[in-house]
Specification:
This protein is α/β, with parallel strands linked by helices and 160 residues long. It has a single domain, classed as Sugar-phosphate isomerase, RpiB/LacA/LacB (Ribose 5-phosphate Isomerase B, Chain: A). 39% of the residues lie in helices and 15% in strands. The chain has a five-stranded parallel sheet with strand order 2-1-3-5-4, with helices on both faces. The longest helix has 13 residues. The protein is globular. 39% of the residues are buried.
Length: 160
């Protein structure tokens, strides 16, 4: 398990230095990486809500995307992380929800930009295309980045 550590230099942060509530969901293709993320995020001090899946049996990813999005829409979680084989299905399913801005990221730069410019509230990852160390770097960057607001706020408002 590649994420069983907590980087002491990482500020347990999002929006200043507060710990946040994060909902995590996956399908069977993302189970191992989700389990590592749950462990690492909890170790880093975040409140984690793991909505499943919990076995390697084949499941339908839209069910778990809907669960994570529901946690955010209902205010029980501030952010969500969705993991499937490529991240594509989860991002499509999550973005069906009007209040959700899901970003599929493959490296730290797009993760930062998704928060800074797009105020993404869901991060989608592909377990079959990312290694654990890179996935952790993406999550750290995403959580540590604040929304810039300003001209970006106007653009977010245009999406409803």
């Amino acid at each position: 398990m590649g994420l069983l550590f907590c980087d002491a230099t990482y500020k347990i942060a999002c929006i200043g230095s507060e710990r946040v509530k994060i909902a995590l969901g996956c399908d069977h293709g993302g189970l191992a990486l989700k389990n590592e993320m749950v462990h690492w995020l909890a170790q880093a001090g975040h409140e984690v809500n793991d909505v499943g899946c919990h076995t390697e049996d084949s499941v339908d990813y839209p069910i778990f995307a809907d669960k994570v999005c529901g946690e955010i829409i209902e205010g029980r979680s501030s952010f969500g992380i969705l993991i499937c084989g490529t991240g594509i299905g989860m991002s499509i399913a999550a973005n069906r929800h009007r209040q959700i801005r899901a970003a599929l990221c493959h490296e730290a730069f797009t993760a930062r930009m998704s928060r800074e410019h797009n105020d993404a509230n869901v991060l989608c990852l592909g377990a079959r295309v990312l290694g654990s160390a890179l996935a952790l770097d993406i999550v750290k960057s995403w959580l540590a980045t604040e929304f810039a607001g300003g001209r970006h706020l106007r653009r977010i408002a245009m999406m409803g």
